[in-house]
Design goal:
Blueprint: H1 2-7, H2 20-44, H3 50-70, H4 85-95, H5 108-119, E1 123-124, E2 132-133, E3 143-144, E4 148-149, H6 154-160
Antiparallel strand pairs: 1-4, 2-3
């Protein structure tokens, strides 16, 4: 994520290297990857028991409780009130709630964040519609297609492709 942001600094997707804001963004990226993303794993894993999925939903809820505290008092984004790659990552992972039986209504700040992120120019919200079957069992006959962000610069296109 940081490589993408640094490959196209004019997009403003990361604070400058060496600043406290950059360290805060890295902190959020690491937390999302090691805590929130990981907590969703059992919900997408074929063969996870109902009890295992219930435990995973409880774990995700605890992570969402923490994120809710990070988005208090009208704060729109995670770092310096400017959209960053940490927000993009949080948006994608939080949006998984829609496909795993977790209602974001319990976390109004997070729900507003997801809606705000989906409405951003460059987010192809049409691609957030369910499409692919992930599970073979009848209980989890969920459909899912990840949301994508459109690339904004030709430099970024060359770096990623």
């Amino acid at each position: 994520m940081q490589y993408i942001a640094d490959s196209s600094p004019e997009a403003g997707l990361a604070p400058a290297a060496g600043t406290p804001a950059r360290a805060r963004m890295q902190e959020h990226l690491n937390w999302i990857g090691t805590e929130l993303h990981k907590a969703f794993g059992p919900l997408f894993r074929e063969g996870t028991s109902k009890a295992g999925k219930d435990a995973a939903r409880t774990a995700v809820a605890g992570k969402f409780d923490f994120i809710e505290t990070q988005l208090v008092e009208g704060r729109e984004w995670l770092v310096e009130d400017q959209f960053s790659v940490a927000d993009a990552y949080l948006f994608v992972v939080s949006n998984w709630a829609n496909f795993t039986g977790i209602d974001l209504a319990r976390w109004p700040n997070l729900a507003a964040f997801v809606n705000r992120s989906a409405a951003r120019r460059g987010t192809d919200s049409q691609d957030c519609k369910p499409r692919y079957k992930l599970f073979s069992n009848s209980q989890s006959n969920a459909l899912w297609r990840p949301c994508r962000f459109r690339r904004r610069s030709s430099k970024l296109n060359k770096s990623v492709n």
